[in-house]
Amino acid sequence: MPKGSEELTQARKEEIIDACAALYETMGFRDITIRDIGAKTSFTRTSIYNYFQTKEEIFLALLQREHELWIADLEGLARRDTPLSVEQFADALARTLEKRSCMLKLMSMNLYDMEGNSRLENLVAFKESYAGALRAVTCCLERCFPGMAASDMQDFLYAFFPFLFGVYPYTSHTDKQLKAMELAHVKYAPYSIYEIVRSFVQKMLRS
Questions:
Q1: What domains are there in the chain, each with its CATH number?
Q2: What is the pTM of this model?
């Protein structure tokens, strides 16, 4: 067991977040309850309220953790000693995101619910991690493209981060959605997260 109340608190929070993440792999956001999350932890369901007041706060903490993991990968990309070509950078950036399908799913489908039903201090903590991701991508651009103008970097960020909110819906479909597109005669080109991000980043930087 962790020693000290701070370590125990953090360990309990991580266990709750892990339980939430496991459920989110097979269940929808609206279907998951505090009771469901509590059933997958080693302590009582009511104990969850000592750490999170709503399920949305748990999901927001999961999204924050996903951003922090992404930032760690971005920082690794920024530590490269030599500039990269557009193709190499697009490949590397896309690789950092193909591991973050949970982050992209939460951003595209449930962000407003999470933010709207979370306490201000929890929302601030998440926004700090989001700001950290903005800084990390900026740092990558600065290191990989030292001649890139600040205005061009800003344009890239303003296009890239809104683009991320649409990645999951364009790369992940249920059988029902696929059948509906077939019946509606919607042309569908299957893309992975890696493929769609790499293509977008290449086009943005070449322009």
A1: 1-51 (1.10.10), 57-206 (1.10.357.10)
A2: 0.93
